[in-house]
Each structure stands twice: as C-alpha cells, then as structure tokens.
C-alpha cells in the first residue's frame, strides 16, 4: 500500500484499504465458524447459534426458582391417604390392649346365641299367662292398700295405660332389690311453697326494690343530678309545699335588723377588709411562685387523685350487672312473687281422692316399675 500525502489521493487509498480489511475479516470469521460449527453460520440453525440464559439474576428470581423446585419435588413424592395408612410410621407407637377379647359363650343345650333370646321370651310369656289364669284363692297374699274403685281410669284399668316396655319381674325378690327412682312432679301440678319460704321470697323482693332506690339516690347525689319526673311524682305524695304566710297589713318585719354604726366604725371595717385582701393576695402570689417551681410534682398528684374519681364515675354510670351471656351484659331479673292474698288453694287439699302414696304408685305404674294386681272380690280369712 502506497501512502500519498495529497488529500484526495489519501482518501481514495484509505477507502480501498478499508474494503480490503473488511473482506479479510469476513474470511477469517468464516474460517472460525467452520472450525467451530463444521459449516458456515449462514447454513447453521438458530438453536445452534443462540441460546437463552435461564439462570436467575436477582434474589427474588432465585427465591421463586428454589420454591418451584421444592414444590416439584413434593409433587413427585405425594402419596395417597389410602397408601399412607398402609405405610408404617416410626413415630406412632401401638397402644397395648388392656382388655382381652372375651371368649365366645358355650352353647346351652345346643341352642345358638341368636336363638336363646327367642326361647327366653317364649318361656317368660308362658309363665306370665299361667299366672294370669290363677284363681283368687291360688293367687298371692296381696290386697289393695289405696281402695281405688275399678271405674277409675288411672288405677282401676291400669293395663290400658301407656307403659314403657321393660322386662317385668316375675317374683317379688327382683322387684324388692330394684332401686326406686326419683319422683318427677307431673305437668300442671301447682303446689304452694311453705309459709317460711314464701316469707323469705317476699323479703328478698322488698330488699331488691329498696337497694335499687338507695343506689339511685346515691348516684344522683354523687353526680349532682337533679330530681327527675319520676322522683317528683313519688315525692309529691309525701312532701307538702310550704308557702310564706303573708299578713293582711303586709310582710312581717325581719327579726334580725342590721346594727347601726357610725362612719368611723364603717371606715375601720373597710380598712381591715382591704388589709386582709392584700395579705391574702400576697400569700397567693407566694404560693404560686412555689407551685411553679414544683409543677411536675403537682401534675403527678393531680393524676393520682383523678384516677379513683374517674373509676367511681364509671361505676356510677354503669348499670348493676351480675353475669354475661354470649358476651352481652344481662342485669338481674326482678323477683316476681305473689302476695299472701293472691295465693290459691293447695292442689292436695282440693283433690278429693289425692294421696301422696297413691300419686307415687301411679307414677311408678306409668313408667313400668310397679305391677299392680287386680282388685279381688273375695274376702281374706
């Protein structure tokens, strides 16, 4: 390559050199591609030339990649519940059975267990029918204690009553060994309380009313609340309005008339009052200076003294509450008790055929715990 000092020639030579260098570079690049790929880049596929970098660059991307990898592993290791129940777990230990299985009972007279109940029922039915067919002389020594006529629907026709199905005892030994149940009062039975219980209930109701009145007065006094319309209505009956008596000639002269003083005495009193006011002002200023110096201590004292007052105000404004139901405050319910004149007659007195023993027997009979015998016509010897 020849170098020329002139401008135009220099430019031409420079362009020619650049074109030659470009051709040489392309040839070298083609040789490198053939060495790497075995063929030219124009003939190769894009997948052979380029690839996407899937590696995460930031912390968030790396965290999501790790999370997805862990999730994929868990999906591959997922086991069904039915299969997991069969897999033995080392953490769960078997609990030894304390109660051993009972051996099957031997057959009685070659009869299986399922048929034994049927045989027992048939035998019990036969014995029961035989006892029903007995004559009065052959029956047991029982007699009717309550002397109830047969026309009575409750006791005379006891077999028609709805009785619970139970295995009724055939002998007296089974009935005597059975424990008696607690008697349940039938629906509709109104038994008045005793005299002392009724008096206690009346006293409790009166004390509740008096306590509420005292609480209302105490709260009104503490909160400086005036009298309401309800209070005025209640107190109007007991309090009588007092009006000043005016005489015919005019108002009566007051008994305490002002004393007559001279001018010197009045001036002396004025000077004494003025001096007392000045001394009080001086004391107040002196106290104010001292209070300013210890203002933090005064603030603490005010806060401590205001706490109990605030609690008292809250308690006074709040209703008297004894319990909570489902998060709601429920006050005490009022005691409703009838007066002595309003009490009705006792059910036991109005019931002609009523008797405590008979009522007990009827309740046992309806529940299937008592087996009465029909009223016999014969006489005892």
TrEMBL record:
Keywords per UniProt: Coiled coil, Nucleus, Ribosome biogenesis
One Pfam family in the UniProt entry: Nop53
Main location: nucleus
GO cellular component: nucleolus; nucleoplasm
Keyword Acetylation found: no
A biological process from GO: ribosomal large subunit assembly
Keyword Cytoplasm: no
Protein name stated in the entry: Ribosome biogenesis protein NOP53
Organism expressing this protein natively: Rhodosorus marinus
């Amino acid at each position: 390559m020849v170098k020329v000092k002139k401008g135009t020639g220099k430019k031409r030579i420079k362009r020619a050199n650049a074109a030659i260098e470009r051709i040489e570079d392309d040839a070298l690049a083609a040789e490198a591609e053939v060495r790497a790929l075995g063929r030219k880049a124009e003939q190769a596929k894009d997948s052979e030339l380029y690839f996407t970098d899937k590696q995460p660059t930031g912390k968030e991307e790396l965290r999501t990649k790790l999370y997805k990898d862990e999730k994929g592993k868990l999906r591959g290791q997922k086991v069904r519940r039915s299969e997991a129940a069969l897999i033995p777990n080392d953490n769960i230990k078997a609990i030894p059975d304390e109660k051993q299985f009972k051996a099957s009972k031997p057959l009685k007279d070659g009869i299986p267990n399922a048929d034994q109940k049927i045989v027992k029922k048939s035998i019990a039915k036969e014995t029961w029918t035989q006892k029903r067919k007995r004559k009065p002389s052959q029956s047991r020594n029982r007699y009717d204690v309550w002397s109830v006529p047969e026309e009575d629907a409750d006791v005379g026709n006891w077999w028609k009553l709805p009785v619970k199905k139970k295995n009724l005892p055939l002998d007296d030994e089974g009935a005597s060994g059975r424990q008696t149940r607690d008697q349940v009062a039938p629906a509709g039975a109104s038994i008045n309380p005793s005299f002392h219980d009724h008096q206690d209930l009346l006293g409790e109701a009166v004390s509740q009313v008096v306590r509420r009145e005292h609480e209302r007065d105490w709260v009104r006094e503490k909160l400086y609340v005036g009298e309401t319309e309800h209070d005025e209505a209640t107190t109007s009956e007991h309090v009588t309005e007092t009006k000043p008596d005016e005489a015919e000639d005019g108002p009566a002269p007051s008994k305490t008339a002002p004393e007559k003083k001279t001018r010197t005495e009045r001036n002396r009193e004025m000077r004494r009052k003025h001096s007392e006011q000045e001394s009080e002002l001086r004391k107040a200023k002196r106290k104010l200076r001292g209070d300013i110096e210890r203002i933090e201590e005064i603030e603490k004292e005010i806060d401590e003294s205001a706490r109990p007052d605030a609690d008292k105000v809250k308690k006074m404004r709040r209703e008297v509450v004894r319990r909570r139901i489902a998060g709601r405050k429920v006050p005490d319910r009022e005691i409703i008790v009838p007066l002595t004149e309003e009490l009705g007659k006792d059910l036991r007195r109005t019931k002609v055929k009523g008797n405590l023993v008979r009522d007990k027997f009827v309740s046992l009979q309806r529940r299937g715990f008592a087996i009465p015998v029909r009223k016999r016509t014969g006489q005892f010897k």
